[in-house]
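re: ur question from earlier - yeah i can do the single chain one, its not a big deal. heres the input i used so u can compare w yours
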Amino acid sequence: MKSLMVVLTGFLCLLTAGLQAHAQSFPSKPITVVVPAPPGGVVDASGRLLAEAMARQLGQPVVVDNRGGASGNIGYSHVARSAADGYTLLTSYSAFHLGNPSLFPKPGWAQTDFVPVAMAVVATNVIAVHPSIPANTLSELIAYLKSNPDKVSYASQGSGSLAHVGTEIFKSQTSTNMLHVPYRGSGPAIQDMLAGQVQLFITTPPSVMQHIQAGKLKGIAVTGKTRHPGLPQVPTTAEAGLPAFELEGWVALFAPTGTPAEALNRLTAAVKASVETPEVVAKAKAAGLEIRFLAAPALQEVVRAETAGWAKTIKGANIVVQ
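and the output i got, formated as tokens:
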């Protein structure tokens, strides 16, 4: 009996040591970060920023794999079908993650296909209007919109985009009505806005800062938690009297469901260490992004809460992808 106990004890020690060694050895090969968007833009910039910084933290190459198309569904579906071993990650964008399950009958993936690693960055937005709108504050803008229902047109980067859903949320919260004009990206939308073809656009500050500073557009309010450093004179929506309206595009890493906890913990720690470096903070700022780290539990709560709001708005506004 004593000999048997000695053997069992030795086996358990070897098993524990093996598990610890496995956990400590992750990662033992390159990691792929899938970006569900083409090169360029917020999602790609965020994915590349994280990949470069995490490679230094993990001691292994972190390769960016752009798989754009179908409003992010191609990249999401690829990661959902990938091995749950920590070596294939998803650079998730809030508009895709929150909206696609309601916008597409069969997107090819579900939120339950993924587990959170960490949120890394957010991109705030600014409510920009054409000078023909006689409003310089958020309260004046809301009053004007109420007095002129359906006489103002607002732009978006396309049906179901962050600007589209976000502006519909704004309309709901302020009991106002505007006409939606979808574009293929921010560039054409801004050109038509400068020409007065559309009068309102909720977009990222870097895309309109020069026009606001030149007086060609007016910045009414920033939709994030803090003022944007490039537009210090523009108040937040909370400061302007509408604290319930926040619209930020976040970028976070997710892994396929079933990924071992040891790998997830290592990856979360790598994201945290990466975004705390001055170099990454500076690069994020230069790209118009704000560092905001959230570990897995907090990120999962954000997804739960915001998905419900997006689903309600998409259904209520009858938003369909065109």
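The chain has eleven helices and eleven strands. not sure if urs matches, ping me
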